[in-house]
Design goal:
Elements (H helix, E strand, L loop, with lengths): L1 E6 L4 H10 L1 H4 L3 E4 L1 H10 L4 E3 L7 H10 L5 E5 L9 H14 L3 E2 L2 H12 L5 H6 L2
Parallel strand pairs: 1-2, 1-4, 2-3, 4-5
Length: 133
């Protein structure tokens, strides 16, 4: 599966910790990330990621393009709910694209862990069916 990992600045430590905790599961999949998030994850783990631009510089849109082409299976975007983001429209566009293409989208640690545990159990294999349409 293709998985995107994204985090706002104040959430980067959480996504790094999540990546370390679930490194075994994540290592079995094709990983993508926005700039700094991807760098921080690669520095803390042995995971290999394809890195895009920083979110505000277009990384969110690069991931959105993959979603629009139905080339992404799962998004983990740890959002900072207490800080206004200048690129909020890009974030809303990602959410909308995920809804259109039926892609699971976690915006907090609790949902991310539920999705990763489901992935480990093979419960997200229905995404493979969606790819074939």
């Amino acid at each position: 599966m293709k998985i995107a990992l994204i985090a706002h600045d104040r959430m980067k430590e959480e996504i790094v910790n999540l990546s370390m905790a679930y490194e075994g599961i994540l290592s079995e999949h094709e990983l993508y990330a926005t700039g700094t998030t991807g760098l921080r994850i690669m520095e803390a783990t042995s995971l290999t990621l394809t890195r895009f631009l920083s979110g505000p510089l277009g990384g969110d849109q690069q991931i959105g393009a993959m979603i629009a082409r139905n080339e992404m299976d799962l998004i983990i975007f740890l959002r900072d709910p207490l800080t206004a983001q200048p690129h909020e429209p890009d974030i809303i566009a990602l959410l909308r694209l995920c809804d259109v293409h039926k892609i699971p989208f976690a915006t907090n640690l609790g949902t991310a862990e539920v999705l990763l545990k489901a992935l480990e159990r093979g419960e997200l294999s229905w995404r493979e069916i969606v790819h074939k349409e």
